[in-house]
Structures are given as C-alpha cells and as structure tokens.
Design goal:
Layout lengths: L8 H10 L12 H6 L36 E7 L7 H10 L5 E4 L1 H6 L1 H9 L3 E4 L13 H19 L6 E2 L8 H9 L3 E2 L4 E2 L8 H11 L5 E5 L6 H16 L3 E3 L4
Parallel strand pairs: 1-2, 1-7, 1-8, 2-3, 3-4, 4-5, 6-7
Helix pairs in contact: 3-9, 5-6, 6-7, 8-9
Length: 258
Amino acid sequence: MARHSGGRSWYGKVAGAALGVTLLAVGASVWTAQADSVGASSSPKATAPATPGGDVEQVAVTIVHASDAGARGVNITIDDGPDPAWTPQVLDVLRQYGVKATFCVTGTQAQAHPDLVKKVVAAGHRLCDHSVSHDTAMDKKSEAYQAKEILDAERMIVEASGGVRPMYYRAPGGAFTPYSRKLAASHGMRPLGWNVDTKDFERPGTDAIVATVERELPNGPTLLFHDAGGDRSQTVEALRRILPSLKEQGYAFGFPVR
C-alpha cells in the first residue's frame, strides 16, 4: 500500500493485534528500463509448498516492477487483505475475466482468515508478504524489528495457506531498506514495488480510479489496488471496468518477474 497520512485507524487496530503475535528471531522508470534491470529466469510454481527459511531459490534484492508477460504485460497487485467482505468479490472479478493477480497479505489478516488465503492460492494467484502489521514506518526502525515483521508474516502466511510460500515482499508504504530487501530475497521473496498507485484506499470514486490507471499506465506495468482497510466497493467496480478494457487494448496479464 502507498504511504499516506489519513485514514489509518484500521491499521492501528491491525498493529495492536500484531502485538499479540509471537515474534521469531531472526521508482518508477520506463518499462524497458525495468525489464533490463531484472532477469528472465523462470519462476517456481505458485503452489509449491515450502518452509520459511528452508531451501529456497535466491532472488534479486532489487525492487521489481517488470511483468513476466512481456512488453505489453500488466501486473495486478492487491494489498492489505485478505478481508472476508472484499477479497471474495475481488476474486470473483478476477475469475470472470481470467486474470491472475498477486495478493500482498499481512500476517495478521492471513492468520485471521486462512480460508481466504487458501482460496487465493487455489485460484492460481500468487502470495506476497506485506509484513505482520503494515507499519509504514518500518524503514525508521531497527533491523531486528524489520526481521520480525517480515519473517513472522512469512511464517503466518505459509501456515494460513497450507504450506505455500509468499513469492514477493512488499514493504508497507514502500518502506524498504537495504536490509529488508536483502532479508526478503534470502527467503526467496523478491522485493515488489508498483508503478501505478490507484489511490483506491482514499475512495476517490470508481471513475477516478479508472482514470488514474489510464493516465499512469505508461509509467510501468504494476498496478496497486486494495482489498482491505475499509469499503472497497469502488475497487471492485473499477477492476470490473479496467480488466476488460486493458484486454481490449491488447495488454496481457502476468506476474512480477522474479
């Protein structure tokens, strides 16, 4: 999720819930430039079971934006869930248009709604670690704190999914640090950025969300939406308009390159 100042009460509750969790020790450039900055190696299956910290594929520490669908590829990414009200509706829209997405889930939400995490995986979508408590000030805190947020979330997501490891790590509000990127990559989670922030969390109206995508898509292929944190009816309706429109324009939907 993009960093912003307003409407954080939901995240305050999430952060509070995260305190009860046992902690484990442990920009936008043009598409061509993005594609040049990452490798074209094949990705492991999204459904491969794994144990956090086990034998994992090493991935690059750089923040990825490029799509594995090529020059006309688009990555749909969905942050902050899963949420029992909105995630099923987002999944329905994605299924209707045959689109796969990357769901950046928080540890507390994954732990609270494991059935939804399993549904995301069963539908062929990929998982992304979005930290335990969505602390957008993580980059200002200690490495020990960052490690706990990232690795506890990884464990919680794997447990909720039934053994499926998140393939990416997206820092809340883009609060990456060199340490957090290196740590995530060492656990097989490619740091994941975005190019188009739809600002749907502000509920600007469906028309405004659609217009933002149309205006900013030339910035790059990774689009940021949300399925939690409040009323996401505008997001659902925007996706219902955006997905078929992009298909008609010749875009293909893929996953972020790993």
